[in-house]
Fold this sequence. Notes:
By secondary structure, the chain is an alpha/beta fold. It has helices at 18-29, 66-76, 83-103, 142-156, 222-229, 257-260, 274-277, 287-299, 320-326, 328-338, 403-425, 438-446, 456-470, 477-493, 506-532, 550-553; strands at residues 6-14, 34-38, 54-55, 117-124, 131-136, 160-163, 165-172, 178-185, 191-201, 234-235, 240-247, 264-266, 311-314, 347-356, 360-361, 367-370, 378-385, 390-391, 474-475, 541-542, 555-560, 565-570. The protein has 16 helices and 22 strands. Helix 14 runs antiparallel to helix 15 (506-532).
Amino acid sequence: MADLPRRKFDCLVIGSGGGGLRAALQLAQAEATVAVVSKVFPTRSHTVAAQGGINAALGNVSPDNWHWHMYDTIKGGDYLCDQDAVEYMCRAASKLVYELEHAGVPFSRLDNGMIYQRPFGGQSQNFGGAQAARTCAAADRTGHAILHTLYQQNIRARTHFFDEFMAIDLVQDDEGFVLGAVVLEIETGEVMIIEAKTTLLATGGAGRIFRNNTNARINTGDGLAMALRVGIPLQDMEFFQFHPTGIAGKGMLISEATRGEGGYLLNKNGERFMEKYAPRAKDLASRDVVSRSIATEVHEGRGCGPNGDYALLKLDHLGADVIMKRLPGIRDLCLNFLHIDPVKEAIPVSPTAHYTMGGIPTNRQGQVVAPLGNRSEEPVPGLYAVGEAACVSVHGANRLGGNSLLDIVVFGRAAGNHINEFLQQNRYHRPFNPASAGRAVARLARWERTGDGETVAALRAEMQTEMDAHCGVFRTAKVLRAGLEKIRAIKARLPNVRLRDHSRVFNTARIEALELENLVEVALATIHSALAREESRGAHMRMDFPKRDDDKWLKHSLYFMANERIEFKPVRLRPMTVETFPPKERTY
Ligand SMILES: Cc1cc2nc3c(=O)[nH]c(=O)nc-3n(C[C@H](O)[C@H](O)[C@H](O)COP(=O)(O)OP(=O)(O)OC[C@H]3O[C@@H](n4cnc5c(N)ncnc54)[C@H](O)[C@@H]3O)c2cc1C
């Protein structure tokens, strides 16, 4: 253990999606030494797949104002958002989008040269009035444009990249300071310690706990599980967003931009059913509402196709010009995976697991804050988290489309600034005792031998199928409890998985086993939190408790891995400078 190679940096950033890269940029530009580790080449991070766009109240297409954006975000989150964080994000949005524009993001343009903005779900003018157009877009490849720009800027600022390295676990000293992480070079299997004065988790979401999902294969919740293993709880994990329009049976995302541009949903009778569920916003109601509506249509026998299990998304009336110019990537997806041209035919869609609203609890500066041991909630020294891995909480019980790309750049930058301040006052590394890397090294050592059980791939598929079946759009205590037992049984079988089979080399299977360990912990956190919350709010729909209950449940859940324990903490209802938006009934 003592002879593991060690590298030293001011800051270790784990994850090179938009969140990690925006933070790294802020640090590198201030001349801190920054290491970014990523399981994949940076521009392959899931941010690259974001299609629709990034929200900011620029007012280029409809009148707009950050205060309206703030209201929509809080209402969209079914009042579970921390309102100070939402105010911070919505106020910063325009500045951050212009900054991206100046850094080189090729946004689509209006005829007058301004940044193009499209309407997205849950957006309104004047606190719930007419539809707003707030989502700034680079055609339907906005995440691609942002991620590539941030990567180039980081190269210029001399950020140090460790591509295709997997972080295994955090390293912590006896006083609880986080001192970096143990990482594994995927190609060679070499292990190394990256020692840092500050460590930032930006590992993205955990959509891979479900079988039917829109996420990249790498989105296995590694950062969430790493936090759990050092005793940090995960917040609000019961809130998982199911996107209404995944390609039916396959899961890949058909962006909300399709409905923003004027597409709409139909059932088997050709009825535009969203008019019934959301008379004003119709197909642009928030995602939880639209997903439940599709599931209800299917459930009540009005689904399309031979099995009656999907809805149709109609775009052909938009015309070839709009589709080619504004939605070219969506058209490619449909041609490649469905052999359907949306210029002519409707797209079969059904809800698919999409976004992890919960995550590692942080404050506005990106510091991880948690009640640990018998202490009350306070920052975990040396540790930060941003992006989909974090829960700050701006998305509450349901995220609005276009708010996540915003979240990652706003809080990536804020965390970078806070880390810089910390570095000014803490010029030296803390003493490093190699023994503190023991947890991570032991975890790796467990996977030096192969078991004789099923393959990693088979066990993972089983876990994902159980999560789809037991923790989906509609939930009940009975089904959740059955799911919990299934996932616990899968966890018990995990140590015995077989790492050698004809389709995988040992090292690849070992990486997948490490990922599956993380997925199982995140799945357990999700089911436990879903069982604990006995109300329906945002994306969490309990058939046995169908109403929102603010008296009892206007609070965040915290799941601790030790003893699979749940605690709660209050929602911060007080914004920074404006008046609070008190909870009221949510209609679209
Ligand atoms: C298909 C799709 C479309 C979307 N469209 C939009 C949209 O239009 N607008 C919007 O606002 N949001 C959208 N979202 C959501 C948004 O894109 C994501 O929430 C956001 O990009 C996440 O960024 P991130 O930086 O937190 O993580 P990611 O971009 O997911 O990056 C995670 C990084 O962590 C690394 N990593 C993970 N584990 C480890 C480990 N153990 N060791 C080392 N590295 C690790 C990965 O290699 C990767 O670099 C979309 C999401 C999807 C899936």
